[in-house]
Structures are given as structure tokens and as C-alpha cells.
Amino acid sequence: MSVAATRRSRMEKWYRRLLALYPKDHRLEHAEEMVGVLLAADGAAQVRAPKPVAWALRFGQHTADSADLVGGALRIRGRIALNRLRRTHWLSWTVRDQRWSDALAVVSVVAPLLLLVAALTEFRIPQAVASSITGHPHWELTATLGLADLPMAAGAPGVIILVFLRLRRLAGLGALATAIGQVAAGAVPAFAGYADPAVAFTVLLSGTAAVALLLSPGPDRGLALLTRSGTALVGAAALILGGFSVGGDVWFGAQPTRSDDFGGKVAGLPADLLIAAVLVGVAAACLRAPVSRRVLVLLAIPVIPYAFLWQEKLAVDLFGPPGGGSAIISSSIPLLYLPPLLLASLVLFGTWFARRRAGERDRQVASATA
Amino acid sequence: MQEPTFLILTALAAGAQHGYGIMSDVARISDGRVRLRAGTLYAALDRLKADGLVTGDKEEIVDGRLRRYYRITDEGTAELAAEVGRLRANAAVAASRLGLAGGTA
């Protein structure tokens, strides 16, 4: 056997070994022709050049072809896995009522978006960007990532990525895991988290996102209802408000010397509170859709705990700081979580009752016609 | 549509070709700028077949090796024509704004 033939045989063996990375069906169908193409390409690349140069060129081509084969195998396997996930029929139960189904679809776009902004704001990332633009010295990045922050830090971007990949059910499960993770992290005594209205907001928002993603046709339908410009408006508003939201110890403009200064009354809103204002923007965008009222009811569920932040703020503004005659109702787990659960139960009961009445009406019409 | 996909469909628009033929044609069409390798080509062909834009054609044995031909489908032709229209419109706007001859907007 000549040197060239030995080399070709060695290359063929190597390429066949790499082709083992491809899925079996693809290999059976294309392996022979791929080997033929690879060897033909190698033959065409032969150049007249001094031996070391020719060897270097051949080695470069061979290495690039090998890397490309591995890349091709990964692309095909990735596509197959993605298609399999998309075709899976698990968790295929969705709400039958068209109006509630559409409302949940809109929420399946808005809630993950708000969740991401809430996570970014928790780490003051939009605030840091705003600070770099405005030069405000108090808006600094606090990148302290503790165990209690992990569910939001990993969950919120993860849910958005899964939504973007159109993996609705996985995104729903991700949102559910984010909610459970936050509750679990809050249950650790050292963190004592979930009696905080801001944490209640993100826990309930994750839960709402999970329900919307699992029980609706998903973000595709939601985007169609919300319209592209509406979604862009919501996203931009969320990020801008996230950027200009501030913690309780930070103020717009100069830091006030007395707590009852104008700056203290107007600013100093807890960071997440301004995200709630985004919901007003969402409401405005949703008004164009026929399901707007239902969307607002669903989004009200995670916003209810903010009532406590508002009353705290109002009480301080009207009656002075705590201890000075202020009438602050301190937040507790039942006060934070029971009203949203009550609203969710009302929604469930209302839809069940409406369906039952519609069924009775249909039966009456049917018996009258008979 | 990504450039390799566009070039593969363009290569097949002239008639059915085998894998190595497509690779050579793509290099020729792109003036040597795009050089498809086997892994990329067959991953793209796999996707295009799944999308119904390309289909298998005849097979032959040359020098003891299998050679399979691929051809563009009607759907693939329509998709390519739509992409050409999009690119042409964009190019016309760009040319106009650059003050080049042939611009329309």
C-alpha cells in the first residue's frame, strides 16, 4: 500500500470514529457519503509545496474538519433533544375557558419579565447602570450573593431563557422551583425571609408565572394578544423603573438630613415597590386586549403584599417614624399570603360557578327546544 | 435565513447536487469567502430536510463510495425567493442611503 493510501485509510478510520458521535439514524443514512465528502475535500486540498508547509496545511484542514464534525454532531443532537422536548405531551392540561386561557397567556409573558427585573433590581444591577449614567453616588452595585438569593439569581434568568426557547412547560416548572426555592431559603432561620413584603412579591410572582405558563397556551399566544409594541413598552418600563428604584436607605437627589424632609417623603421607596408601578403600564398595554380585566386580576395576586409597604410609607408620612405615634401594621406571614390566596380562590370559585351557570343555561335552552 | 443556508439553497436552485458538489458550489458562489465543511453541511442538510426545503434525489456509487444527490423542493424555492426579495429590498435602501446608483428609498 502506498503512503498516500495508508494515510487515507488512517484518516477514514479517524473520521468514522468521530461519526460515532452522531445519532444512529443520521449515521446510517449519511455516514458513508460524509466519509466520501471528507476524503474528497482532503484530496482537493493537496497543494504543491515544500513538505513541512504541505504537512502543516493538511494538519490544519484535518483538524478543522474534525472539529466541524464534532460541532455538527452536537448541533444535530441538540436539535433532536429540543424537538423532543417541544413535542412532549406531559403537563398538557390547560384552562378551557377561552378568556381565562388568554389572560393566563398574557401573564405568561409579563410575569417572567417582571421576575427578571425583580431579580436584577435585587442585585441593584439596573440601579448601577442608572448610577453610571446619572453619576449618583448612592446607587452602587451590591453583588453579595448569599444562599437565600440563589433561587432568584438562577431562577429568574433561567425561566426567561426557557420562555425564549419556547419551552413553556419547562419554564413553568422553573418558575415553580423558583417559588419553592425562595420559600425554602426563607424558611432557614438565618435568612428569616418570607415575612418580608418584597420577598412575598417575588414568591407570589414566581407562583403566578408558573400557573400561567403551565395552564395556558403560553407566551406565543400572549405575545399575539399583547402585541409586540406592548411587550417592548412593558420591558422598557420595567427596566427603567428598576434602574431608578432605590432602597430604603438611598434617596433621589441629596440625602435628606431629617427623615421628614421632602426627599424622604417622595423617594426612598423600597426597590421592588416601583416594579409594582410597572404593572400599571402592563395594565395600559393590556387594555387593548379583550381579556384585560382578567389579566389585571391575575397580576393583582402578587401585588397585594405591597399594600403593606404602602401603608408603612403612608403611616410614616402622616404620623412620623415608627415609635412616634405611627400606626404601622407590621407585616406577618398570614397577612402577606392569605389575601393573595383568597383572591386566587375567588378566581377559581368564580370560574367554576360561571361554568356551572352556563351549563345550566345550556340545559334549560336544550329542554325548551326539545 | 443564515448565510450558509442561503448559499446551500442557492447552490441547489441550479439543480440537484451531491454533498461535495454543494461544498464546491458554495465556495464558488461566495467567491471563496464561505467554505462549508462536512459537519456543517450535513447538519444544515438534515435541518433543511426536516423543514421540507430540501429532499434526497438519486444515488450513485463512484469509486466504491456512495454519492447521494439533493434537490430543492417547491417550498425551498419559495423560501429562497422570499429571502432574495428581502435582501434586494434591504440592499436598495442601503444603496440609496449611501448615495449609490440603483437605490430606491
Mean pLDDT of chain A: 74
Helix content of chain A: over 70%
Apparent shape of chain A: elongated
**How are strands sequenced across the largest beta sheet of chain B?**
1-3-2
Order of helices and strands of chain A: HHHHHHHHHHHHHHH
Largest sheet descriptor of chain B: 3 strands, antiparallel
Q: Detail the poorly predicted runs of chain B.
A: none
Q: Would you identify the CATH architecture of chain B?
A: Orthogonal Bundle
Total of helices of chain B: 4
Strand content of chain A: under 5%
Give the low-confidence spans of chain A: 246-268
Which structural class is indicated by helix and strand composition of chain B?
alpha+beta
Architecture blueprint of SSEs:
The complex is a heterodimer of chains A (370) and B (105).
Chain A: H1 3-19, H2 24-44, H3 51-87, H4 98-122, H5 125-134, H6 150-164, H7 168-187, H8 197-215, H9 219-226, H10 228-244, H11 262-266, H12 271-286, H13 292-303, H14 306-319, H15 333-369
Chain B: H1 3-13, E1 17-18, H2 19-29, H3 38-50, E2 54-62, E3 65-72, H4 74-97
Antiparallel strand pairs in B: 1-3, 2-3
Report on this structure:
The complex is a heterodimer of chains A (370) and B (105). Chain A is an all-alpha fold and 370 residues long. Helices cover 74% and strands 0% of the residues of chain A. Chain A contains 15 helices and no strands. In chain A, α4 (98-122) runs parallel beside α10 (228-244) and α4 (98-122) packs antiparallel against α12 (271-286). With 105 residues, chain B is an alpha+beta fold. Chain B has one domain (3-92): Arc Repressor Mutant, subunit A (Orthogonal Bundle), CATH 1.10.10.10. Chain B has helices at 3-13, 19-29, 38-50, 74-97; strands spanning 17-18, 54-62, 65-72. A three-stranded antiparallel β-sheet of chain B has the order 1-3-2. Chain A binds chain B through residues 26, 30, 32-41, 44, 64-65, 67-73, 75-76, 79, and chain B through 18-20, 23-24, 37-43, 46-47, 65-68.
